[in-house]
């Protein structure tokens, strides 16, 4: 880390995506462009980030230019309509998969928390393994379903049966009829292991479980959340008789309980933000950079509870690295420099109308504020 009095500084630009507006890469490029207009001599290192949800594969791809994109047509989306699945195959044989791309909430025409499934995720996992993947890195986040990953497990060979030995309906609601699970034909997990990237510590069931914590954003009313919670408990009880699993493990409730289902398949739940920081090289920058610029669509109290920006700020505090947070809206004040696009633009609507431009402006303002603070 250089002294600010020595001249040019090293600046790591590591934002999350601004959901529904800009990708993490687009945000990073715009912030860097604005910063350079004020401090052109600074060394800018662009490291777009993600926490296991939207943008996970793209964040990894931005720092692994030897990765090869794979694609699977006709994947079953969360509501049954066909979509396209894709994954990134890294040189070491790791396939990077993002659940949201084939089983995500934005793919739904209308909410169906009880019927949406992770079947498409299972199809992409199976295709990646057939393509030769030796390990899997799966981003869990942005899911439409609350099926505990049952749809994915079924696609991988598990049979979910009712008391008459018939296959139960798909989706979380169908788990209420579950009586037994046959894992005799379940595909083995890859030899290099399965990492499940989570952005939550939610467990599978109960008040802090998948249905109650994430059900509202998927359209589940209180009664349906109760039903889904009971169905997930039934699933956990049945799966626990066949495979080692822990519904109370932090992160088991990620992606509607998919963290639980895939951990029973041999997956290991890991904090997504920290893992992506390691994969993209951001972890090393906390000991090298003079400043880290991060950001997200809205910075609020929850940002400091396991989310990407909170994770970045925590590492900045540990290493005494200056921090800048740029957000569409600042609901609370971050440590270090904080800049709101809505404040710069005059309103949230104005900021959303031209997010790239206002990110460039924010980059310039951030650089100016940093300079004045030195």
UniProtKB/TrEMBL annotation:
This is Glycerate kinase. GO terms for biological process: organic acid phosphorylation. The lineage of its organism: Bacteria, Bacillati, Actinomycetota, Actinomycetes, Mycobacteriales. Keywords: Kinase, Transferase. It holds the Pfam family Gly_kinase. InterPro entries: Glyc_kinase_flavodox-like_fold, Glycerate_kinase, Glycerate_kinase_RE-like, Glycerate_kinase_sf. Belongs to the glycerate kinase type-1 family. GO terms for molecular function: glycerate kinase activity. SUPFAM superfamilies: Glycerate kinase I. Coiled coil: none annotated.
